[in-house]
Amino acid sequence: MARKKRRSMLYIPGNNPAMIQQAGVYGCDAVLLDLEDAVALNQKDAARILVRNMLQTVEFYDTEVCVRVNNMHTPFGLADLEEIVPLQPDNIRFPKTESVQDVKDFMKEVRRIEKEHGIKKPTMTIHVMIETAKGVANVYEIAGADPRIDAITIGGQDLTADMGIVKTPDGVGIDYARKRIVMAGKAHGLDVLDTVFADVNDEEGLREETEYIKKIGFAGKALINPRQVDGVHEVFNPTENEVRKAYRVYSEFIRNKNAGIGVFAIDGKMVDAPVVQRAITVLEYANIDLKEIEESVAS
Amino acid sequence: MTPKFKAQAGTFESSDIMVLIEPVSEEAGRQIDISSTVMLQFEDDIKNTINQVLDDLDIQNVHLIAKDKGALTPTIKARVEAAVKRSLGIQEGTM
């Protein structure tokens, strides 16, 4: 099965029906229906009820649907889970994760609710958000704390606030955290997702930041406006040259594999397993079916 | 159940509906006043949806005022439920 793309994950305020009902047509890979920071304290109940109703009715097409609930240490976290978990959105995003115990407490409630609703084979995965210095310090253990975690993400705004620094356009204050979270996520085979770029009018800044986070290993980025989707996709989409090269690598890999050869060369450069894996990633991002390549090599 | 407090949920934004609940005396029945930008086309649908939620929540006596700006059915359901629960004191919200 092709890897699910998470280049763009668009935050949508959980109390905004107009945006939620259009979520499937923005062209992003995933939407994050937000019950946390995007919802005023006195509207938490209304947002929770609205998201629950929308999840049951709205067509999201191929867009992955994630719901960000409130932290379990707030009066809203458990109530969010009680309403959302029975509906099994694609994922739930758990904010301000600071320790393995946080994950255990959260998952205990998730599993209890699933059991109470007779959900024997839950499909919903978990995204953990690292937004505090303590969370960054514990990130490797957090990333491996539960097998249902399939992505880890950095919350830049809260992290800079927790560190007592200002988030600057060059991202220097959160650079160490970004890299540490990437390594922890990769070590556990997770998708690692970047924080938002807050200035929707600065397209060049968004592009530069996206190019940087792609280079250091992020699989995608959270967005706050549909206008940011295309710019992020352009960065994450492979170029034509990259696709051609990947196609050639994978074709030769299949041909050599069929002949029982492990390592081979293309244009004098060695091709081994990591090179093939990179080629597969490029082809998947370009929506090219690997089976079609395998069949064309065989014929 | 009978609403105890004045309560509201929703907004006047497009695709939303503002629902206001006023307590009435027991045995007063339901009074539902709707105004909508799509009144001619959907008044009956909006009213049916509101009544369905009130039935589900077992609310027989209430004055409900709805000001609709083209909300879809799930939005109408959500706003009525939120307003009723606030009026019952089950959940906190505005007003």
Could you list some keywords that capture this structure?
heterodimer, A: 299 residues, alpha/beta, TIM Barrel, 2 domains, eight-stranded parallel β-barrel, two-stranded antiparallel sheet, 46% helix, 15% strand, B: 95 residues, alpha+beta, Ribosomal Protein S5, domain 2
Q: Architecture of chain B in CATH?
A: 2-Layer Sandwich
- Tell me the name of the CATH class of the largest domain in chain A: Alpha Beta
The proportion of residues in beta strands of chain A is: 15-25%
Tell me the total number of β-strands of chain A.
10
Report the span from N to C terminus of chain B. Answer: 20 Å
Instruction: Give, in spatial order, the strands making up the sheet with the most strands of chain A.
Output: 1-2-3-4-5-6-7-8
Low-confidence stretches of chain A: none
Short description:
The complex is a heterodimer of chains A (299) and B (95). By secondary structure, chain A is α/β, with parallel strands linked by helices.
Description:
The complex is a heterodimer of chains A (299) and B (95). With 299 residues, chain A is α/β, with parallel strands linked by helices. Chain A folds into 2 domains: 6-234, Phosphoenolpyruvate-binding domains (TIM Barrel, Alpha-Beta Barrel); 238-296, no CATH class. Chain A has helices spanning 17-21, 44-57, 77-84, 100-116, 133-137, 139-143, 156-163, 175-187, 203-215, 229-236, 240-258, 273-285, 290-298; strands at 8-13, 30-34, 64-68, 91-94, 125-130, 149-154, 191-194, 220-223, 264-266, 269-271. Chain A is globular and about 65 Å long. Chain B has a single domain, classed as Ribosomal Protein S5, domain 2, CATH 3.30.230.10. Chain B has helices spanning 39-56, 73-88, and strands at 7-9, 17-22, 30-36, 62-68. In chain B, strands 1-2-4-3 form a 4-stranded mixed β-sheet. In chain B, helix 1 crosses helix 2 (73-88). The model of chain B has no long low-confidence stretch (mean pLDDT 93). The interface between A and B is medium-sized, with 16 and 22 residues.
